[in-house]
Amino acid sequence: MNKEQILNVLKQTDVMQEGHFKLTSGRHSDKYMQCAKLFIDPDVSEMMSGELAKKFSDVDIDLVVGPAIGGIILSYEVARQLKKPNIFAERQNGEMTFRRGFVVDKGLKVLVVEDVVTTGGSVKEVVSLLREQGADVVGVGCIVDRSNGGVDFGVKFEAVLSMEVVSYEEADCPICKTGAPITKPGSRSIFSK
Ligand SMILES: [Zn+2]
Description:
- With about 190 residues, the protein is of the alpha/beta class.
- The protein has helices at about 5-10, 40-55, 70-80, 120-130, 175; strands at about 15-20, 30-35, 65, 85-90, 95, 110-115, 135-145, 155-160, 165-170.
- It is built from five helices and nine strands, in the order αββαβαβββαβββα.
- The strands form two sheets. It has a six-stranded mixed beta sheet, with helices on both faces.
- α2 (about 40-55) crosses α3.
- The longest helix is centred in the first third of the chain and has 13 residues, at about 40-55.
- The radius of gyration is 18 Å and the shape is globular.
- It starts with a helix and ends in a 16-residue tail after the last helix.
- About 35% of the residues are buried.
- The model has no long low-confidence stretch (mean pLDDT about 90).
- Zinc ion binds near residues 28, 170, 173, 175 and 176.
């Protein structure tokens, strides 16, 4: 899929909405992203995860790991397509850790996946956790890299879509200056009966 086709899927599934939004940070933006919606439709989930899996088809991988919650379904689906096992990391008392009896053996080659990378904080924590356990992190993959390539994990990093989500302080917002009202992020149902 090319960038335009990927963008179309993200818009059709309401993952990416366009308008004039006030983000949780209080800043204004012309885009609003809700990546969890990628996984509502299993066919879309399969297709987008497949786009990511393809980028690592030439990499020797033993295990796929995603940080909860955004990385759980993605990790499962990428692993399924690469025919590898997967587990997820999750926070306990604020620390990224493996629970539920998940064990990472020393020397395992691990691909870390996450739905959206903005600053890469959660992914970096998972990478550190894996290295502490003696794993060999061979790559990081995400569906949307909102840093537009600005994050460096020190390993092969691939995104299905790389873009920059620009935001503004209200006082400097060019969309406000056009007089456009703030759009409420849509909760339109994408299901059809
Ligand atoms: Zn504005």
